[in-house]
Design goal:
The chain has 302 residues and is of the alpha/beta class. The chain has 8 helices and 13 strands. The protein binds zinc ion.
Length: 302
């Protein structure tokens, strides 16, 4: 029996697909988690014992980062050991600005850099609104990128590569934003997903789950991690105070209210509301905070 350190590139139930961490071209191996179920996350570095074709995950190395999203019912770990989150959106289909802000908030709360990517810039219908959302992101201190993976692939590839080279980047986005086209500019994600599904023997199911794709060193290195397209980005794992703290436009004001336990809603002497009144915090951003507050007060965090 040998022991090796491996990267988890996909999971399905108690089975994980792992690749020896020392080489990007090392063969894939199916590994089973001993004992506990469901605690392995894509991106994890794990210690495996290997005997012939059998591999078992003995332990999980401490995580450098871990991104969550959560609804009222369950918390879902999206990926571990990532350096940045690329939040992809487009003029069409219509995007939800609050989805972008929620994903930005989750990344900031997890201390992971964010990259806001506007895709499909060739679509003029809806572009001004999308451009405004990108500008808002930049005003919040987020790195931004505007490109068209389909209409101008060479330009898109070059700039997306520059923004992601050497880093582990998780792609998130609502369905239909062209996340796959962007991903396929740098890795052959379809072929690899097929390979992952075959190895895990799960048919199409794994294609809807998170997958880790190493980028060859010759192409800049790092990794791209694809996540399922979803409609909502739940933050139920974050308390109301944590949500406010993870909004860069509100965070400097926290602690300056009259009451220590101010929720920044109707309390007198609230520094946040005063800043909104002075025009220093955008009304749309405060409305977003109020939405998060209503949500947190309705459903207690866990
Ligand atoms: Zn306040």
């Amino acid at each position: 029996m040998t022991l090796q350190v491996a990267r988890v590139v996909a999971t399905f139930g108690r089975h994980s697909l792992v690749r020896e961490a020392s080489a990007a071209d090392a063969p894939l191996r199916v590994a089973t988690r001993r004992g506990k179920k469901g605690d392995v996350v894509v991106g994890d570095l794990v210690h495996c014992s290997v005997a012939g074709e059998q591999a078992a995950i003995e332990s999980i190395a401490p995580r450098r980062s871990l991104l969550f999203r959560a609804d009222e019912f369950r918390t879902k770990e999206l990926a571990a050991n990532i350096d940045q989150v690329a939040i992809v959106f487009a003029p069409r289909p219509p995007f939800n600005a609050h989805f972008l802000w929620r994903a930005l908030l989750a990344a900031r709360a997890a201390r992971i850099d964010a990259l806001l990517v506007l895709n499909k810039t060739d679509l003029t219908d809806g572009l001004p609104l999308a451009q405004a959302a990108l500008d808002q992101g930049r005003a919040l201190g987020v790195q931004t990128l505007a490109l068209s993976a389909k209409a101008a692939p060479d330009d898109a590839r070059a700039r997306f590569a520059q923004a992601t080279a050497g880093r582990a980047t998780l792609l998130v986005g609502q369905s239909g934003m062209g996340k796959s086209s962007l991903l396929n500019l740098r890795v052959d994600a379809n072929a690899r997903t097929q390979e992952y599904s075959t190895r895990l023997n799960v048919g199409k199911q794994t294609t809807t789950a998170t997958r880790w794709f190493d980028v060859p060193a010759a192409d800049g290195g790092g990794a791209l991690i694809d996540s399922p397209g979803f409609t909502a980005f739940g933050l139920a794992h974050l308390s109301l105070a944590a949500r406010a703290q993870a909004m860069p436009d509100l965070a400097p004001l926290i602690g300056h209210c009259r009451f220590n336990d101010c929720r920044h809603l109707n309390e007198p002497g609230c520094a946040v509301r005063e800043a909104v009144d002075r025009g220093e915090v955008a009304p749309a951003r405060y409305a977003f905070y109020a939405e998060l507050a209503a949500e947190a007060l309705r459903a207690p965090t866990y």
